[in-house]
Design goal:
The protein is α/β, with parallel strands linked by helices and 412 residues long. 45% of the residues lie in helices and 14% in strands. It has 2 domains: 18-47 and 316-409, Aspartate Aminotransferase, domain 1; 59-310, 3-Layer(aba) Sandwich (Aspartate Aminotransferase, domain 2).
Length: 412
């Protein structure tokens, strides 16, 4: 009898899944569609036109086309080209006082920014804190880095951000582990579409400032969908600036959504601190992490993004092209809200963004019912995520009808 050889993998790696659950569902939908079945695939966070094709921005492709070939083919600086980092910071702050208090490094999309933040602002074995509905890769990114993830109740009974739960959990964690990294994805939260209002931003930053007396607390803003937020929303920068002396802030910036460049993998982690010496330490630590993981980021993508952000003609075209896509998405939001109200579907405050999450007593039952209808969405804990970004407007009635049937099937 042949002896079973021990795995060469370390024990923690032996039972890991081979694919992300969302991409697995997407693959199932694509496979069924390939057989000729009429499939509505609302799984991925990519914006499509109403004809079902991927939405792109011509200004960005013009910038990609005109990037110098030899320069684009060369290694980029480890932390990113200085012109790119300056352009990203200006895109975030455009003259706000925080711009002078920022440092940044390039990352492969928002995922890279979050991974970089987790590894530099938490010790191994410590946990990040986020709301009870969250983008599933937060769990993977914290697990892979030998950290972890804990949650507070995201919504109170009135549907607002649950500041009471947030404060209790934050204080519990800072007392238990000595420091906390808080991840807030707003505006246009993935997966719910929820955006914090001024009172909620004020509450979050005030609570964190008070908790900082017990140990270092750092705010990480996942900014992935911010360019699709409704006009006239609260300015998070003012709230961050007010408490920056006690609560350093990080921003995970990405070109994936705002430039419709999901495949380019261009992003940045921007760090804010009042003290110049500490900012230099942050920049060094974040750059060291870049070298030890992905090393250099996509030089062509960063050159193109820099060009769009700094060339007046390209930047104007980019704003106009994105405005059209924002309206495309907002029109879907209006239709969804109207039809969902007729079916009495329950979901958080939703004014814009790629996703909305609808509460379900049993998401697995809801998902199965909808897949039987040829409609694919993503299950969550206590809800299902609907990608309106991937749903043409004329398909929304079918989506809502299937969703209402699936929610009804799940009622206990």
């Amino acid at each position: 009898m042949t002896a079973v050889q021990p795995s060469s993998l370390i024990p923690i790696a032996t039972d890991r899944p081979g694919d992300d659950p969302i991409f697995t569902l997407h693959g199932m939908a694509v496979k069924r569609a390939a057989t000729g079945e009429d499939i509505l695939n609302a799984t991925l966070g990519a914006l499509v036109e109403d004809d079902g094709t991927l939405a792109v921005m011509p200004a960005v492709h013009e910038a990609l086309r005109r990037a110098p070939m030899k320069k684009a083919s060369a290694y980029a600086p480890i932390s990113g080209p200085p012109a790119f980092l300056a352009a990203v910071q200006h895109d975030l702050f455009h003259g706000h006082e925080l711009e002078s208090k920022a440092v940044a490094v390039a990352t492969p999309g928002g995922s890279g920014a979050i991974y970089n933040a987790v590894t530099n602002f938490l010790e191994p074995g410590q946990k990040a804190l986020t709301g009870s509905y969250y983008w599933a890769p937060y769990e993977i990114l914290t697990d892979l880095s030998r950290r972890g993830l804990d949650t507070f109740n995201l919504f109170n009974a009135e549907g607002h951000f649950d500041l009471v739960s947030f404060e209790a959990k934050l204080n519990e964690m800072v007392e238990a582990q000595g420091r906390v990294l808080v991840i807030i994805n707003s505006p246009c939260h993935n997966p719910t579409g929820f955006s914090l209002n001024d009172d909620e931003w004020r509450g979050v930053t005030d609570i964190m400032a008070a908790a900082s007396d017990k140990g270092p607390v750092t705010l990480l803003i996942d900014y992935a969908y911010a360019k699709f937020a409704p006009a006239g929303g609260p300015d998070w920068r003012d709230h961050v600036a007010r408490t920056l002396a006690k609560v350093p802030c990080l921003v995970a910036w990405t070109a994936s959504k705002s430039f419709a460049q999901y495949g380019a993998r261009v992003g940045a982690l921007v760090a804010l601190h009042e003290d110049a010496t500490e900012r230099e330490r942050m920049a060094n630590a974040m750059g060291y992490t870049c070298r030890g993981t992905w090393s250099n980021c996509n030089h062509l993508g960063m050159l193109a993004v820099t060009d769009v952000l700094t060339d007046d003609t390209l930047r104007t075209s980019w704003h106009d092209e994105r405005a059209r896509l924002v309206k495309l998405l907002d029109d879907r939001v209006v239709v969804f809200n109207k039809l969902a109200a007729k079916h009495n579907l329950k979901y958080p405050r939703y004014e814009g963004g790629f996703f909305v999450s609808v509460f379900s007593d049993d998401p697995a039952v809801t998902i199965k019912s909808m897949q039987d209808d040829g409609v694919f969405i993503v299950p969550l804990q206590g809800a299902v995520r609907v990608g309106l970004c991937a749903t043409p407007e004329d398909k929304i009635p079918r989506l809502v009808e299937s969703l209402a049937k699936g929610i009804a099937a799940a009622k206990k």
